[in-house]
Amino acid sequence: MAQTVVVTVKPGSRKGPLVETAADGSITIYVREPAIEGKATEAAARLLAQHLGVPRTAVTLASGATSRIKRFRVD
Q1: Residue 56: other Cβ atoms inside 10 A
Q2: What is the pLDDT averaged over residues 35-57?
Q3: What is the CATH number of domain 3-74?
Q4: For 1-45, how does the pLDDT look when each residue is reduced to its tens digit (9 = 90+)?
Q5: Which residues lie in coiled coils (predicted)?
Q6: CA–CA distance from 68 to each of 1, 2, 58, 59 (Å)?
Q7: pLDDT for the residue 1
Q8: Backbone angles phi, psi at 62, to 5 degrees
Q9: Of 12, 26, 46, 54, which sits 20 to 30 A from 68 (CA to CA)?
Q10: Distance, C-alpha 66 to centroid of its chain
Q11: Nearest 5°: phi and psi at 46?
């Protein structure tokens, strides 16, 4: 059963790679990759898969390709 995970991506961050979950359940992903040609999105998907303990192929971008707020579908 697939579910949608909404995350905020912080590209070009010195803090990354890091996944932070706030008390309200929101997820922020810090990646070192710049927001150029989808590099930050790919890095965020990789980190999210690792954080959730699923294979990278189970995480796909549902919406937000050019936005900092992204929706990923997790199968």
Answers
A1: 13
A2: 95
A3: 3.30.1200.10
A4: 789 999 999 999 999 899 999 999 999 999 999 999 999 999 999
A5: none
A6: 26, 22, 21, 17
A7: 76
A8: -95, -40
A9: 54
A10: 13
A11: -60, -45
Residue 72, beta-bridge partner list: 5, 61
Beta carbons of 19 and 9 less than 8 angstroms apart: no
**Structure token digits, residue 57:** 């192929």
Tell me the backbone φ, ψ of residue 10, rounded to 5 degrees.
Answer: -115, 95
Tell me which residue of 25, 14, 26, 24 sits closest to 68, measured CA to CA. Answer: 26
Mean pLDDT for 51-56 is: 95
Q: Which residue is associated with the tokens 């294979």?
A: 55
The Cβ-side half-sphere exposure at 47, using a 13 Å CA radius, reads: 24
